[in-house]
Amino acid sequence: DTEVTQTPKHLVMGMTNKKSLKCEQHMGHRAMYWYKQKAKKPPELMFVYSYEKLSINESVPSRFSPECPNSSLLNLHLHALQPEDSALYLCASSQDVGRLGTGELFFGEGSRLTVL
Amino acid sequence: DAKTTQPPSMDCAEGRAANLPCNHSTISGNEYVYWYRQIHSQGPQYIIHGLKNNETNEMASLIITEDRKSSTLILPHATLRDTAVYYCIVREGGNYQLIWGAGTKLIIKP
Description:
By secondary structure, chain A is mostly beta strands. Chain A has no helices and 11 strands. In chain B, 0% of the residues lie in helices and 50% in strands.
């Protein structure tokens, strides 16, 4: 199984809603990532989890709250978002964040978020 | 800031080799060159990576110049399904950080 599964594929929410994006992998990877991608731009790193601990937060606003319940799951909790937060949110995993493995990231297909 | 420069778009005829260039003139000695591609509405997909030597796998070949300031990704027999945005990326050894370029939109024409 070399897949990263993201749900939902599409999400529309109002600025006062609370919602969550979910990501799952069963490759035994110990690093998981959230990226944000705006149209016609490369992905931007948001968070990195290494061995279930948050290791990197790229100055992401607190209205985005990541959670790693276990080594296979990664959530992104969303609250009080703004319309400019509308984007494709990509989850990825890798064997490790550092020297182990090839450094290859496996990406999910993304969750397309629209904030009204 | 991006450490790579790529042409914004390229065309290639189906069945021909697609050669995608990338400049990374400020690359450091411990930084790898990675290539990913993103087909429309999908997540990025790893293609290949290298440090100094040329590399080949079932998808592509990566040619890195001796001074490591540029590289070329070669898709030997392009098909319509290879139409995608191709990202040339620099990654520091021992580090999670991928520094993405703007990408090249490759269009394969029948």
